[in-house]
Amino acid sequence: MMVTVSRKAHFNAAHRLYRIDWSNEKNHTVFGKCSNPNYHGHNYELVVSVTGKIDKETGYVIDMKVLKDLIKEEVEDAFDHKNLNLDVEAFKNLNPTAENIVVVIYNKLRSRIKSNLKLKVTLYETPRNFVSYSGE
Ligand code: NI
User: How far apart are the CA of 112 and the centre of ligand 1, in A?
Assistant: First the structure.
């Protein structure tokens, strides 16, 4: 019997999508407004889901407090009110698309969650645009 436990979180961050080896024109063609040289912000929403067996002693799959603190430390403290391109090491040489952000978040959390638990991260860049990654 497997149960999924989920926690929502939120951060605001700025980014710019571009490749330094492309011309401004090509960046604009591919990334549109998202390549605006002066950056722009998003209200990112996050859903972190952990799936596993219920622990017989505690009745938990994972302690929600532990999960909450982990997300705060690895995601909110690292990304909230930051410029992802300039302030976050992971995006120094990686385009901060929603796809790349969700993989970075997954990898940060994966290394802190027991390997017998499955992890899935869903990242909303806008209320209608979202991406998911579960390590496959
Ligand atoms: Ni954007």
Answer: 28
In the chain, what are the domain boundaries?
Answer: 2-13+41-133
Fold for domain 2-13+41-133? Tetrahydropterin Synthase; Chain A (3.30.479)
CA dist 27 to 18, 95, 132, Å?
6, 12, 25
pLDDT tens digits, 76-107: 999 999 999 999 999 999 999 999 999 999 99
Q: Would residue 34 show up in a list of annotated catalytic residues for this protein?
A: yes
Residue 42 known to be catalytic: no
Give 77 Cα–ligand 1 centroid separation in angstroms. 20
Supply the pTM of this predicted model: 0.95
